[in-house]
Amino acid sequence: MRIANLDGRLVLLTSGGALDVERASGQRFSADPHAVYARWDEFTAWAAGLADPEAETFDETRLRAPSPTPSQVFGVGLNYRDHAAESGLGLPDSPAVFTKFPSCLTGPYGGIALTGSTVDWEVELVAVIGREARNVPAERGWDHVAGLTAGQDLSDRTVQLAGPAPQFSLGKSAPGFGPTGPWLVTPDEFADRDNLELSTEVNGESVQKGRTSDLIFSVPELVARLSAILPLRPGDLIFTGTPSGVGMARSPQRFLAAGDELVTTVEGIGSMRHRFTEPS
Fold first, then answer.
1. Nearest 10 degrees: Cα torsion 241, 243, 248, 254
2. Which residues form the Fumarylacetoacetase-like C-terminal domain (predicted)?
């Protein structure tokens, strides 16, 4: 199953297009795309019972973030061995967690204003929580995931690394620095949900490519580790980490500039496309 946020309304995607959930359910479910996660089991049961739903074609540029107003957005650093190596750091014994403030979230298409001359790209698989998780064992981690989407953990490296202590959350939370989309795909849709290719292109040039099978801490392991500390709530996001190829680790270093087009792709989900503008 695939769901999306179309102009701020929850839609179910079918081979024929988009089905407005509020209208199709006779207002049983709200049009609010975030509200569905609190009723995930009820919603998926309803959606599974639909017979030949009438859907409408739509312009994908109208899509917005699949979970637009989460209470918590977690980022995980150094979660790929090759990225830890290019950062000159050892492998973590536990997830290196920071937060991206929810105000940074944006949709899968459109423009993003740069904040300076050192804004970097980081393709990520993003897990969206569908059932509250507290002290969940890793073997049950997937049971609490509503679905997966693509994400970019855009990072202003100057802000992020300003001392004396790094400011990861601030450096990664400017407006637009958390694009997600183009839609949410439920875990059962994937042939192997633990082994998905993800990639980044800048102006048509491949700059990142990896597979989620190389994650140090997998999606269910992250659910377990995080839920051991605090409750994960329906609609919360987990940015699971990025593979090697970030601009800061290159020689010479390379960062995003006004006019650049960033294409973010995750296998089995789809692609996002963003154009960068001068700092506002």
1. -120
2. 73-276
Domain extent for 9: 2-58
Cβ neighbours around 115 below 10 Å, total: 19
Amino acid at 218: S
Q: How many CB atoms lie within 10 A of CB 8?
A: 11
Residue where the block lists tokens 């701020």? 8
Shared domain check, 71 and 93? yes
The residue whose two tokens read 């209208």 is 23
Q: Hey, what are 219's tokens?
A: 């999606």
Whole-prediction pTM value? 0.97
* pLDDT tens-place string over residues 215-248: 999 999 999 999 999 999 999 999 999 999 999 9
**CB-based burial, 169-195: b 16+ in 10 Å, e otherwise:** bebbbbebbbbbbbbbbbbeebeebee
User: How many domains does the chain fold into?
Assistant: 2
Percent of the chain with pLDDT over 70: 100
